[in-house]
């Protein structure tokens, strides 16, 4: 489809028409957005990848910089030259000096890209190397991002804003707040996801939040503005070209009123309750603003509308493609990032043809369907964090659903979330609470808000009562109330099927088969068979993709005739990963996209099913056919029966499709690759252990328990400490290290949903063991292991959170061979077809197997990029062998020597959760990752730290305070810091040890020992890096202040001795190297022999 546009353009150029593509630039630098964090997720991978596609097709050479290895965009095929380097001015200057690009396109890399462009401009680097900025002018970034500039521009245009003033200090902020009257909203300049800001009701709150905001802002500037809580929050997505033509791609209505960040808000497109006249007024204002800021490409404009006084004010603009633009693109079929990139290169909207509108300047949003976006949160991962939503974004992902009406789309969104709810009722224990209790819970917005509203309506609360508390509009509450009434009527026939009319109506209103089976207590299959008998089946409608002749993607509905043409080609269906969340992120999307590309090359038609609007997999031209649908049995089976593919691939989308695989197989679906029974075997501890015994491969002693008594008995046999966790989880949900009987009893009591067929697993915890993992590509009889990854943190830290290095540094050659041999044996014994990931631990030179995952894991993109092995395409070739009859590619794969190191480091959202102790443990809490590449292991580690914004100091003061267990290694660490001319300060016990080893260190008081103490030193900025391992379970709280202070003061910190050792090594390497050279991914790959 992109090809179609580009062919058209080339034809026009040949005809000598005045196509306005810029000829003064050849080489374009694109800045990516770095690791996935809250507020900046994979929507920028989607926009960046689209931009690269568009610009390369137009004949430009692309240089791409991004620190995130998990994205499609950092694959060596996407740009001409790819740098996986930390995103900061120094590294970018090195790259610009080496590559000499003509132009920089900054507005596709989120806030990171924009901020870097501003900094490069201010430091004179763009002028020095003669780099033009395209797509958005540098002064436009200022006008959009700098709160004072923006306000000035709005005043000139006569556009109303909230009353506000700018503060550069806490005192100024207090004075302004007094004038405006509390509550006030604080918004730091140049930040994203509402970081550092918030709503404050009194002076004390203002002092805390303002101090945090001034620190978070790039320019130490915070806007103090009147509160417009409870107003409607509305967004327009506008696209403008170089000639000043503008179109509105999408009108988005936030159903949650102001006070909840738009990233957390539940929203609909089109606007469902806003008058035409009001939409027109906003559109006129948006056009004025976008024209004055002169953005070329997409801009997101946010408005607030007071339904009482009808006042409209502009909140802010994002002069870049944003989270909302990904949503707007997928909601309307208008590829904003693709079009923005083409416009940035001088084309205009009139130059881009479109099958539906002729040319894009005539575009209007006119779909006859409703799109709902709902966010996905991860509060359960962070102990001590209150589940409440405010002006700082908390969501880690989102889903989008399309239906014919609000009810259908809303219920589809709920079942897309994959948090165990297939409808709005009976979530958690809400149905057993009183009306009063539910209404009280609704006072503060939370991730459970709509489930609470549903039960409150069921308990007899009125729409008016709920509107008073939540300010959610009457229309939406009425719709939800109608669903409650419909459900209550359905429940009267509990134990049997409802009447034909009731069942038909329920399906039209979006009730899922599974939810109906739960409330009626009837098997799901009976409901499915009954509705099929009645002819009530899903139909599909297409969403036309703008700028193409006739491309479309599809959504299901029970409210229309089927309009979904099906081919009889050889087809394969790929199941996507659903919403982003901690433990299942963009890495799985990466695998699905590569599988789709590989299947096309093998001559298959590809079908992708997914519901995540942020990703590349839901881009219309990634697959031949895209279904924007929830990943549930009902929706996937309907598509399978309609399309009749040769088979379904479930091993690339993480846990989501795997949880469906067995049920799909029971319903006659052919699952390609590793059989679901093998995946169950790897999950079943007893079966897996029996297999390891047969293969004579050691595992840590373990047992399973369903009661406290059993658990204590098993732990007694194995010996504490033990690792406990529930079965069947991804991302280490609910994993803990337990040190004694009391803690074990507590864990068992708190464990939810433990049943005899879902017991708690208990393993001996390997103390001070080195953890490592290996990915393998297997064809059922042979397996190939590209590399063994060594974890930098010791066993006990979740593999997704641990830093790791490829190839390994500290593992002996024999152990590496043993690991490869074990991996091959296990893969062959399990007859794995495709990818597999193995986790090992080495204790005193002996290798233990921890677990096997016979599916794609989150390390696939990392290993593929560092080792230059196309893991997913090779696996796809293996999986489809039964259909193509090809030879297996595995025997031909050869082990290579990799002459450099890649260090992966995780990015954590602790800055968004200031109340959480940032300790690493067996439960995964990182949202994204970065990669540091270098010929030296030390420098690679240093670069990885730099890429997660925790740059290690090359000299200064180090604070060391460690627990008894780590005393042995502390001297080594101190010695390295001393050799690099650091001043060492340490708490009493640690200080004594370091001095005894003949290394100078000064003693500093702990918090409980008087003043001046450690905290004073940190607060006064006297400490440059902190090494602090926690005291242990009994007194785990008494030193968390150190780690929280480190995050607040943005001081690099290490909570494990292994990380401290790596940091010291990194500092040493950089101090002794000749100013870190940089090399592109393509250069590095050419050195592999």
Residue fraction in strands: 15-25%
- Tally of strands: 42
How many helices in DSSP terms? 38
Distance between the termini: 38 Å
Structural class: alpha/beta
Q: What's the gyration radius in Å? A: 29 Å
For the largest beta-sheet, the strand count, sense and barrel status come to:
8 strands, antiparallel
Q: Tell me, rounded to a whole number, the average pLDDT.
A: 91
Low-confidence stretches: 4-18
- Assign a percent range to the helix content: 25-40%
Q: What gross morphology would you assign? A: globular
3D architecture notes:
The protein has 1089 residues and is α/β, with parallel strands linked by helices. 37% of the residues lie in helices and 19% in strands. The strands form nine sheets. Strands 30, 31, 32, 33, 34, 35, 36 and 37 form an eight-stranded antiparallel sheet that branches. Strands 14-13-10-11-12-17-18 form a seven-stranded antiparallel sheet, sandwiched between helices. It has a five-stranded parallel sheet with strand order 3-2-1-4-5, with helices on both faces. A hairpin with a 3-residue loop joins strand 15 and strand 16. It is globular. About 1% of the residues have low confidence.
Structure summary:
This protein is of the alpha/beta class and 1089 residues long.
């Amino acid at each position: 489809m992109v090809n179609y546009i580009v062919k058209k353009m080339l034809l026009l150029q040949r005809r000598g028409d005045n196509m306005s593509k810029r000829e003064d630039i050849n080489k374009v630098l694109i800045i990516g957005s770095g690791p996935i964090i809250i507020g900046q997720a994979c929507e920028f991978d989607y926009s960046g990848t689209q931009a690269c596609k568009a610009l390369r097709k137009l004949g430009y050479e692309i240089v791409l910089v991004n620190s995130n290895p998990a994205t499609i965009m950092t694959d060596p095929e996407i740009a001409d030259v790819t740098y996986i380097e930390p995103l900061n001015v120094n590294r970018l200057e090195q790259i610009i000096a080496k590559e000499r690009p003509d132009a920089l396109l900054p507005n596709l890399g989120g806030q990171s890209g924009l901020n870097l462009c501003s900094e490069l401009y201010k430091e004179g680097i763009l002028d020095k190397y003669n780099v033009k900025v395209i797509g958005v002018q540098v002064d436009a970034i200022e006008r959009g991002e700098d709160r004072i500039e923006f306000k000035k521009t709005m005043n000139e245009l006569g556009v109303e804003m909230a009353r506000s003033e700018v503060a550069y200090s806490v005192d100024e902020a207090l004075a302004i707040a007094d004038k405006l009257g509390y509550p006030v909203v604080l918004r730091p300049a140049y930040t994203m996801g509402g970081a550092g800001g918030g709503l404050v009701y009194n002076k004390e709150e203002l002092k805390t939040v303002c101090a945090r905001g001034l620190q978070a802002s790039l320019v130490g500037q915070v806007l103090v503005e009147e509160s417009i809580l409870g107003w409607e929050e509305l967004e327009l997505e506008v696209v403008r070209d170089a000639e000043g033509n503008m179109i509105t791609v999408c009108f988005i209505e936030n159903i949650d009123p102001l006070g909840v960040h738009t990233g957390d808000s539940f929203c609909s497109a089109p606007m469902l309750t806003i008058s035409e006249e009001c939409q027109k007024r906003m559109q006129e204002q948006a056009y004025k603003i976008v024209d004055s800021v002169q953005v070329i490409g997409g801009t997101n404009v946010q408005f607030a509308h007071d339904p009482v006084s009808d006042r409209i004010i502009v909140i802010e603009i994002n002069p870049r493609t944003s989270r909302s633009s990904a949503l707007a693109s997928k909601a309307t079929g208008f590829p904003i990032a693709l079009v923005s990139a083409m416009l940035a290169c001088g084309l205009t909207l009139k130059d881009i043809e479109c099958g539906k509108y002729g040319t894009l300047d005539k575009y209007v949003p006119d779909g006859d369907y409703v799109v709902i976006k709902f966010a996905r949160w991860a509060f359960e991962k962070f102990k001590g964090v209150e589940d409440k939503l405010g002006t700082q974004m908390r969501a880690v992902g989102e889903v989008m659903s399309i239906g014919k009406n609000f009810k259908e789309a809303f219920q589809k969104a709920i079942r897309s979330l994959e948090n165990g709810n297939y409808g709005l009722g009976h979530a958690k224990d809400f149905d057993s609470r009183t009306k009063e209790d539910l209404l009280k819970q609704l006072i503060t917005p939370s991730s459970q808000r709509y489930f609470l509203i549903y039960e409150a309506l069921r308990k007899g609360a009125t729409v008016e009562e709920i509107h008073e508390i939540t300010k959610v509009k009457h229309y939406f509450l009425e719709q939800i109330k109608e669903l409650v009434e419909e459900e209550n009527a359905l429940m009267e026939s509990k134990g049997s099927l409802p009447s034909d009319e009731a069942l038909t109506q329920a399906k039209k209103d979006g009730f899922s088969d599974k939810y109906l089976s739960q409330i009626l207590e009837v098997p799901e299959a009976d409901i499915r068979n009954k509705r099929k008998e009645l002819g009530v089946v899903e139909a599909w409608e297409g969403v036309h993709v703008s700028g193409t002749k006739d491309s479309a993607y599809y959504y299901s509905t029970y409210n229309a005739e089927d309009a979904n043409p099906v081919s009889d080609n050889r087809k394969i269906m790929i199941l996507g990963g659903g919403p982003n969340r901690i433990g299942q992120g963009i890495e799985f999307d990466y695998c699905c996209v590569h599988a789709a590309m590989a299947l096309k090359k093998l001559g298959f038609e590809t079908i992708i099913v997914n519901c995540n609007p942020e990703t590349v997999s839901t881009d219309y031209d990634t697959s031949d056919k895209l279904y924007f649908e929830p990943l549930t049995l009902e929706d996937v089976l309907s598509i399978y029966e309609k399309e009749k593919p040769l088979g379904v691939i479930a091993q690339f989308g993480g846990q989501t499709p795997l949880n469906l695989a067995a049920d799909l197989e029971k319903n006659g679906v052919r699952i390609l690759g590793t059989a679901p029974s093998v995946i169950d075997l790897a999950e079943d501890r007893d079966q897996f252990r029996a297999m390891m015994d047969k293969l004579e491969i050691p595992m840590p002693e373990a047992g399973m328990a369903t009661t406290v008594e059993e658990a204590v008995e098993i732990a007694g046999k194995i010996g504490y400490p033990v690792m406990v966790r529930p079965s069947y989880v991804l991302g280490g949900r609910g994993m803990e290290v337990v040190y004694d009987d009391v803690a074990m009893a507590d864990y068992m009591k708190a464990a939810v949903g433990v049943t005899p067929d879902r017991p708690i697993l208990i393993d001996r915890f390997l103390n001070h063991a080195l953890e490592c993992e290996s990915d393998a590509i297997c064809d059922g009889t042979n397996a190939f292991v590209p590399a063994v990854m060594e974890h930098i943190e010791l066993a006990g830290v979740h593999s997704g959170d641990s830093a790791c290095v490829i190839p390994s540094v500290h593992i002996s050659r024999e152990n590496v061979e043993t690991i490869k041999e074990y991996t091959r044996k296990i893969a062959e014994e399990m007859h794995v077809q495709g990818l597999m990931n193995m986790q090992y631990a080495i204790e005193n030179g002996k290798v233990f197997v921890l677990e096997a995952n016979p599916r794609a894991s989150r390390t696939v993109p990392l290993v593929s990029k560092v080792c230059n092995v196309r893991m997913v395409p090779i696996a796809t070739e293996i999986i489809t062998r039964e259909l193509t009859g090809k030879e297996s590619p595995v025997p031909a794969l050869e082990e290579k020597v990799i002459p450099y190191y890649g260090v992966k480091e995780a990015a954590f959202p602790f800055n968004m959760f200031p109340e959480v102790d940032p300790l690493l443990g067996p439960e995964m809490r990182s949202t994204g990752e970065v990669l540091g590449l270098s010929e030296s292991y030390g420098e690679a580690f240093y670069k990885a730290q730099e890429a997660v914004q925790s740059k290690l100091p090359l000299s200064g003061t180090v604070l060391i305070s460690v627990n008894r267990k780590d005393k042995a290694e502390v001297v080594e660490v101190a010695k390295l810091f001393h050799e690099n001319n650091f001043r060492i300060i340490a708490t009493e016990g640690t200080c004594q040890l370091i001095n005894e080893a003949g290394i100078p260190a000064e003693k500093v008081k702990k918090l409980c020992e008087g003043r001046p103490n450690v905290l004073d030193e940190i607060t006064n900025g006297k400490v440059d890096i902190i090494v602090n391992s926690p005291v242990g379970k009994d007194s785990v709280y008494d030193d968390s202040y150190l780690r929280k202070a480190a995050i607040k003061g943005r001081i690099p910190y290490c909570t494990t001795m292994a990380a401290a050792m790596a940091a010291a090594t990194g500092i040493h390497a950089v101090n002794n190297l000749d100013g870190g050279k940089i090399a592109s991914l393509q250069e590095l790959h050419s050195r592999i022999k």
